[in-house]
Amino acid sequence: MKNYLLCFFMLTAGMLLLPRASLYFPMEEEEPPIFLTVLDAESGETFSLPLEDYVIGAMEKRTLPAEEEARKAAAIALRSCALYCRAFRPVHEEADLCNDPACCGGFEREGFSEENISAAAETAGRYLTYQGNPAAARFHQSCGKYTADHQAVYGTAVPYLVRIKNVEENAVQTLTLAEEDFRARLGIPEQIPLEDLFWEYDRSLYLLRLHWGNTSLSGAECAARLSLPSPFLSAVLTEDGVELTCYGSGDGVGMSLGGASLLAREGNTAWDILAFYFPGTEPNS
Ligand SMILES: [Zn+2]
């Protein structure tokens, strides 16, 4: 009898206590997962992709530094850019981004490395903001003495994508082309003397445009046609032809991954690195 009474008491107490306990100790509510609307470049259809799947997949698609804090900085930057695109849709009207590597950088759907899984998980939900909105935290592989100013390269001012004195050793590449080869690659007609080319630079020696006659090419287009990795390039005319010197790799805007590596090796955290390359931005939480 005593056992029955005890059971009855426990059941009743349990029924009374449980709902009340949940009032006093509410379960911590989980943030609902964020989804991106992605445009499939082949079919033209859109599909949904969880933000965190995108971050790991986008990391996998890019060549990222080995240092853990630099890799985490890249994870936060990719998440920030995706959220920026979700908020402002600067590239596609119908989607936050697309899966074409040539357009939005692309992302993998499988085959993720342990390093990328852990960098994404450790920074999950964390991103950079500027004045309360997600920041377009762009990055490139490496650059010269200075990063490039977004306004100088793309024509619009972004307060946190400005010229920063860079920290890494310059990755320099030189290339000498015979005059005919140089002309053929850039499409410069023979009647234009190479001395008359006008190389338009910003103050970081980033080639903005190369002009001749009524024609001009952007620095990025020149670099691509000359098979050089960045528009931080200069040219000297020699007896052998045109001697080109190129610094770094990528468009030079935002965070240099080479610099992020160096800062991580010096003991800086992912947030230190991001604060260095994106002045005025803040962590979301
Ligand atoms: Zn795109």
Describe the model.
- The chain is α+β, with helices and mostly antiparallel strands.
- The chain folds into 2 domains: 35-145 and 253-283, no CATH class; 172-247, no CATH class.
- 37% of the residues lie in helices and 20% in strands.
- It contains 10 helices and 14 strands.
- Strands 2-1-3 form a 3-stranded mixed sheet. It has a 3-stranded antiparallel sheet with strand order 5-4-14.
- Strand 1 (35-39) and strand 2 (46-50) form a beta hairpin.
- Helix 2 (51-61) crosses helix 5.
- Bound molecules: zinc ion.
- Residues 91-92, 97-98, 100, 103-104 line the site of zinc ion (ZN).
Mean pLDDT: 90
**Which kinds of small molecule does this entry bind, naming each only once?**
zinc ion
Quaternary structure of the protein: single chain
Number of domains: 2
Provide key terms for this protein.
2 domains, binds zinc ion, 14 strands, alpha+beta, 285 residues, three-stranded mixed sheet
Summarize the structure.
The chain is of the alpha+beta class and 285 residues long. It is 37% helix and 20% strand. The structure holds zinc ion.
Strands, helices and their partners?
Layout (H helix, E strand, L loop, with lengths): L1 H23 L10 E5 L6 E5 H11 L6 H21 L8 E2 L2 H4 L9 H9 L5 E3 L2 E2 L4 E2 L9 H5 L17 E6 L1 H8 L11 E4 L5 E6 L2 E4 H7 L7 E6 L2 E7 L7 E2 H9 L4 H8 L4 E2 L2
Parallel strand pairs: 1-3, 6-13
Antiparallel strand pairs: 1-2, 4-5, 4-14, 7-12, 8-9, 9-10, 11-12
Helix pairs in contact: 2-3, 2-5, 3-5, 3-9, 3-10
This protein binds zinc ion.
The site of zinc ion has 7 residues, from β3 and α4.
